[in-house]
Amino acid sequence: MSNKLSGNILWESSRMMLPEHKEAINRFNQSLQIRKRAQLDEQEQELINRALQQSLRHRIALTIHMYDPYEQLSIIGVVDRIDKQLQRFMVDGEWFCLAEVVRVEFE
């Protein structure tokens, strides 16, 4: 026969959770999963810019890794346009921010 007084009595004996507690636990778990933004130096930024330019000129497919706080985002395709004034680029008809690029790889 198991002893009910062993372990954490408060949590083991309660079978009910308030919605506020569930939300707080979910927020806490999400805060643990937030990824930090990588700080790129000038050389890495220059390599990214060159790779995007080469893809635009020579129609070379790239894998572009983007920053997102919760998941890993990758864009695979050929750069269609680059807008230096607004710091963005277009792949497959969709605009992306240059500041969000973390790494670029050639296919």
Automatic annotation (TrEMBL):
Matching entries from Pfam families are given as: YolD
Q: What is this protein called?
A: YolD-like family protein
Where does this protein come from, organism-wise? Paenibacillus montaniterrae
